[in-house]
Design a protein that fits this description.
- Helix 2 runs antiparallel to helix 3 and helix 4 packs across helix 6.
- A hairpin with a 2-residue loop joins strand 4 and strand 5.
- The strands form three sheets. This protein has a four-stranded antiparallel sheet, with helices on one face. Strands 2-7-4-5 form a four-stranded antiparallel sheet. A two-stranded antiparallel sheet has the order 9-10.
- It is α+β, with helices and mostly antiparallel strands.
- The chain has ten helices and ten strands.
- The longest helix is centred in the middle third of the chain and has 17 residues.
Length: 284
């Protein structure tokens, strides 16, 4: 299914039970496993195969099998493969509304402060939590009668363990730089099929090209142009799963007006050509 938004309007779980577990496996040598994005939900990410780099705002974490990280609400992040092997990760994504109402003591005493980062949870997950999240895969898959109780209690238990090692700090002022980047991200996801210049992005957020490139690299470790190309390539993979579209049509619909350049970038980020990707995907 095609991903239509970087900000993930995608519903994780259901409106009345907003939690989902994604068990992702990449049997090709992808470099880019999940493009730069952000979302309202909390996320626990655990690596199941390969060596993976997770970029969370300014920080970079190299994770091996069995290791994981906590990704806070609203944090810009991306996932990349670090070695030329198969990769896999579990993403447990949930809206904090599942745990409490905003008038509840739990929200006012803990969740609110986690979100605004005045209560800093450990980013690196203890082994105990990583193991527990992996065990949740079977619970989600089986979805037996009453499984919701176990899932919800597991989230409470995980947060309880993390809060034991949380640090209280002065709440940071909302980062202007982060806000600019999120605005650019949202603009790109709405217009990636069109021609977009660096100057156009800078004008949209009322800044210079030089400043936009500097803060983009500072927080995400990639330039706006690299991110734009990564996002376009990621979107093209969804269209390649439909054999009715030609490679050139897909390139054009994703903002590439030169098929050769599309093929070159696709191989750089995905480790194979668009044709090879389609053949492998359609016959797996």
């Amino acid at each position: 299914m095609r991903q239509e938004s970087l900000k993930e309007p995608l519903q994780h779980g259901t409106p009345d039970f907003p939690v989902a577990l994604y068990n992702n496996h990449f049997n090709r040598q992808y470099d880019l496993l999940a493009p730069l994005h952000y979302h309202r939900e909390f996320e626990f990410l655990v690596i199941t195969e390969g060596v993976v780099n997770v970029q969370i705002e300014k920080e970079s974490y190299t994770l091996q099998k069995g290791e994981g990280v906590f990704i806070n609400s609203g944090c810009i992040h991306m996932i990349s493969g670090m070695d030329k092997t198969e990769h896999g990760f579990i993403a447990l994504v949930f809206d904090y509304s599942l745990l409490c109402h905003e008038s509840d003591k739990i929200f006012m005493s803990y969740i609110k402060h986690i979100i605004n980062q005045s209560l800093l949870l450990p980013i690196s997950l203890p082994k105990e939590i990583c193991i527990h999240i992996q065990k949740l895969c079977s619970i989600f898959k089986e979805a037996s009668f009453g499984h919701e109780f176990y899932i919800k209690s597991s989230l409470y238990h995980i947060l309880f363990l993390l809060i034991q090692n949380a640090r209280r700090v002065k709440a940071p002022v909302q980062s202007v730089k982060s806000s600019i980047i999120k605005t650019v991200i949202d603009y790109i996801k709405e217009n990636y099929s069109k021609t977009i210049s660096l100057q156009e992005l800078a004008d949209y957020v009322h800044t210079s090209r030089e400043y936009l490139c500097r803060i983009f690299n500072e927080i995400t470790s990639v330039s706006p142009v690299v991110y734009l190309n990564q996002y376009r390539i990621q979107q093209s993979t969804f269209l390649l799963l439909d054999s009715s579209f030609s490679i050139s049509d897909i390139a054009f619909s994703c903002g590439f007006h030169n098929s050769s350049y599309f093929n070159k970038l696709f191989k750089r980020y995905m480790g194979c050509t668009p044709t090879e990707f389609r053949e492998k995907s359609l016959f797996v």
